[in-house]
Amino acid sequence: MLDIIRLLPESLANQIAAGEVVQRPASVVKEMLENSVDAEATTIELVLKDAGKILIQVIDNGKGMSETDARMCFERHATSKIIEPDDLYNILTFGFRGEAMASVAAVAQVELRTKQEDQEIGTFIYIEGSEVKKHEPIATQKGTSLAVKNLFFNTPARRKFLKSNSVELRHITQEFERVALANPHINFSMHHNGQEIYNLREGKLARRIVAMFGKSYQSNLLTCQEDVETIKLLGYVGKPQAAKKTKGSQYFFVNNRFIKSGYLHHAVMTAYEGLLPKDAHPFYVLFIEIDPKKIDINVHPTKTEIKFDDERTVYVVVQSAVKQALGVSQVVSPLDFDTDANFLNPSNYSKNQNENYVVDENNDDEPKTFFSDFSKYDDKKTNENKDFIGKYDKDENKGTYGSYINEPFNRKKDLKSHERPEPTERQKSNQKNWERIYLSDEDMEASGERRGTSNEGVNRDKGQVNTDYNTPRPSSHASRPQVFRSSANNLSKVELEAEIKSSKSKIVNSHKRHVFWVANRFVASPTKSGMILIDASAAHERILYERYEQRIAKSTNNIATSQQILFPPTLTFSVVDYELLKEVLHELKNLGFSIEINDKLEEKQQIRLIGLPADLLKEKGESILEALLEQFKYNQTTIKIPKRENILRAFAKRASMQTKNYFSTEEMQSLIDELFACQQPNYTPDGKKIFMLLDTEMIEQLFL
Fold first, then answer.
1. 10-200: what fold?
2. pTM (2 decimals)?
3. Which of 267, 444, 423, 257 is closest to 342 using CA atoms?
């Protein structure tokens, strides 16, 4: 039998190795920037074309390379950083394996120009797919210019899986920001398709942070430092009010190397305990200096994961430093002397450090209790109705669910503009099932229903109203209580009372329904066979999604109605967010946002917000737009959906978070009616359950 095991050709071996090191253009950018830093450059320029797919070029004024070194740097496992095994435990440079340049040259066309200060002439090398095409002397300046062209030109399958330019540019920008933050003493610049994205001058870390992320950070940074025998920590943390609902603004550096650590992130989060809304993430840039012998950085191809000799001590130092920074600024929460059960088990956090972030709709800043106080609601007609109102002030409607979700009711618009089409068959089915949940047997008989069929259409095991979601989804909305769509300001008092009375008659037994506000999040309501528990924010998200989906479909040119802002604010965005905003400008216009961008504003990554969707509170406009972009970016990385659908989902989720953490009885009634007039009331657009039905038998089982 013939021998079948053989050595791979060098070029093929390099292509295989490139799969670990070169995953996308951002991987190449990271390796090239780190090489320039290792070369002790004081000025580094990054030039890109088509998000690095056509060109990635890094120009620096570092030490440069000799002719021999220039050729050797493209060989596998060729490095100047280590010589013997013990050197692995004394590494203070970024690169040391000697794999990066060989891997890049295997899947791209590479041009290298380099010269050392004491040389009169430099070296030019052109490599294509690991094969040296040119190697000759050239006149060039001190330092190195490395150009990577047509990435994955010889591996079309890899190139096919690259994302859009905006996504790839965002990944490149993240790598650029990490290197720039770690080296504030170096001048950095970044250009994309001839446009300057960053121009960062050398200076202190705080100045670098403000230059990269915006002037809003200037007043939100707290100095953080700790110095113990073996560990030194320096950096900045953000004030609690500057926290965001998405990850991405958290930076840990160990010996100037960016790392990811869920365990250390938990140390920061425990220091902020009691100061942040649930699932909000604070900004921080923290540098840890530690003896290289006490860490192992050779555990991952990208070197973003490291092992500490004593991880618990590092945890304590980080937590203590952050708490001290918050305490000095008098924003720290009361001390908690209970031991964190997870503190002694770092592995819990290393497992989850790359977990997808899921936004939680409960976004309130007030301390939560499971139940608030119950009080009686004095109805003018009857004293039998009881209302769970907690802290709700009947005279304060601004920002509550009723004034927000039903804003058209308070706007001066023609009544005809809010008329709804006839309900679809699915909507009629939803409403009929909803009636069966609430109506008593006598009411069912009076309405022509037979006894014994009251639970038809309800799936008790799953707590869902049965609807056929495999059928095509109609574009029209359900018919909803017209009172929440009328223009009350244009009606007389008599007309308004008649309108309200007419609308109430359309609500299924609303005069019999009792509703309660639970745990600052849920609406609970007794039903004929048990009770229903509704996540208010999730319900709000579904309602907004279907409302705007219909508005866009029914409006002229697929553009929803917009309300103009009397004094349009000027908003400043980061480079990444600004490019993303320009990409989705058309979809934002369809939602009802009116945005002005001109040459003068574009130079500063600024826009003027001229108009908002018709029923969006004006004071919420700026925060909604910024949060919408954050959610859009999150959706892009977790699911693949059309851009228009992504924008709709992002808007519905973020707008639903703007509701307050207490609802009046009327608002809870409205929420229930609106939800079950939706096409798909069971789930949010991204698949989260909205409500659960608990029948008497299920409740009794809880007490056995």
1. Heat Shock Protein 90 (3.30.565)
2. 0.62
3. 267
